[in-house]
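Researcher: I've been going back and forth with a colleague about how Helix-turn-helix transcriptional regulator might be arranged in three dimensions. Neither of us has a model we trust, so I'd like an independent prediction. The organism is Laspinema palackyanum D2a, in case that matters for your notes. Sequence below.
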Amino acid sequence: MNDFPEFDPVELWRLSGLTQMKMAEWFGVEKTTFARWCNGDRKPQRWAKRMAAELKPKILQT
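Model: Here is an independent structure prediction for Helix-turn-helix transcriptional regulator. You can compare it with whatever you and your colleague have in mind.
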């Protein structure tokens, strides 16, 4: 069951203004993992989708 919508890591990254390294740190993953999400080599897991759903509104408020 997928409770959280798919998210575009590149969109989230660009909206945040952070580096890939900082985004990876926020998600608690290696920079290479975040880069793989961005280039489509890997799909984020459910927990990452939940985190993205929490992060996006905060980014849009700034």
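Researcher: What would you highlight for our discussion?
Model: I'd start with this: The chain has a mean pLDDT of 88. After that, consider the following. The helical segments are 9-16, 20-27, 31-39, 46-61.
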